[in-house]
Amino acid sequence: MSKKNAFYAQSGGVTAVINASACGVIETARKHKDKIGKVYAGRNGIIGALTEDLIDTTKESAKAISSLRYTPSGAFGSCRYKLKSLEANKREYERLIEVFRAHNIGYFFYNGGGDSADTCYKVSQLSEKLGYPVQAIHVPKTVDNDLPITDCCPGFGSVAKYIAVSTLEASFDVRSMAKTSTKVFVLEVMGRHAGWIAAAGGLVEDHGIPVVILFPEIEFDQKKFLAKVNAMVKKHGYCSVVVSEGCHYPDGKFLAEQGTRDAFGHAQLGGAAPVVANMVKDALGYKFHWAVADYLQRAARHIASKTDVDQAYALGKSAVELAIKGQNAVMPTVDRISDKPYKWKIGVAPLSKVANVEKFMPRNFITPDGFGITDKCRTYLSPLIKGEDYPPFKDGMPQYVSLKNLAVPKKLAGFKI
Asked: What is the torsional sign of CA 81, 163, 216, 150?
């Protein structure tokens, strides 16, 4: 049988380093031309497979592919589209296999978070039932850092670095103005159910900054929160607040809930910062400023963590190596060997234990009062933000790459999703 081609796709919210994983996948596949044919990428994620909108990465130069390592966002386009079960939507799975068969695709590399792991697992299990076995390898990615088994997720270290640095810099600003003006700065960060990103804001305590953190794992108590902020301001003259978008009341309602839903049925969030800031103003009378990090935190490749970039590339590379060895329905992981000095290696986890499982902040990472991080958490976080891996600059601007993304000729009839 002739060697099989590979299909690579990016899924969910993109990151500063997801393209580093893409670089790892494509460069490694090119080194194994005796085992893997062409690498096709899905335009806009799995939708590219369903609509047979494939990108031929062989049309890209070695320099362009290597430039992905320092280019943020998703070079091939991403999507929020979750495949249902085979029973609920058999036609989509049949279509995937039809496209894979038409283009001689035997390897499926899906680069994403928890929902992507679920999709990857389903494809690995159901493709064989549909008569065309496909080796499916999940390449981990999520700024939320909520995938199980792996010590950390590519994308998180860079977001954590951005939030830690931004909180520090903004706190220096509010400290300067606190005598006669702003006394409280509120920064809203991503993290629907897990407070890993918010925790990164706690690293500013090492620089003498008073900070209050609101985690999704801790039910929001307005009275205790306001008392904490007031005490901080009385003592230091100012304070910063880092609030996770997933912060919620005891009844489960998010502070930031807008009443709308995304493509996966998740509550559409955004707006916790102004809610919290106005609470402070109404109850304590302190002048405030607030900001929502939003896309800035996950797109900030200019200040990416070198640890994160190295791990993202290594996991993409490992995904191809696992496939060549015959592995299926697995995810390469980051395994921490030691904290000081920080050492890690690549491991592997079965997707059956990854799909639909979220990893939350351990309670012993959060201070007893629920508003800060412990030394144990600090030990975990610190090495993940270390190191700089700057992109090349020209005339003051980073030189990111935009690929040609030439389409592969279609062989099948159209498909409506």
From this structure: positive
**What's residue 322's pLDDT?**
98
- CATH code where residue 110 lies: 3.40.50.450
Range of the domain at 76: 4-142+302-357+386-398
Do 390 and 275 belong together in one domain? Answer: no
Q: Is the pTM of this model over 0.85?
A: yes
144 carries an active-site annotation: yes
Q: List pLDDT tens digits, range 249-289.
A: 999 988 877 554 555 555 555 589 999 999 999 999 999 99
Task: Indicate which residue of 115, 118, 144, 308 is catalytic.
Answer: 144
How many alpha carbons lie under 13 Å from residue 381 in its C-beta half-sphere? 28
pLDDT digits (tens, 9 = 90+) for 336-382: 999 999 999 999 999 999 988 999 999 999 999 999 999 999 999 99
pLDDT bin (cut points 50, 70, 90) of residue 37 is very high
Total domains in the fold of the chain: 2
164 and 206 belong to one structural domain: yes
Say whether both 205 and 312 belong to one domain: no
What tokens were used for 170?
């903004």
21 within some domain: yes
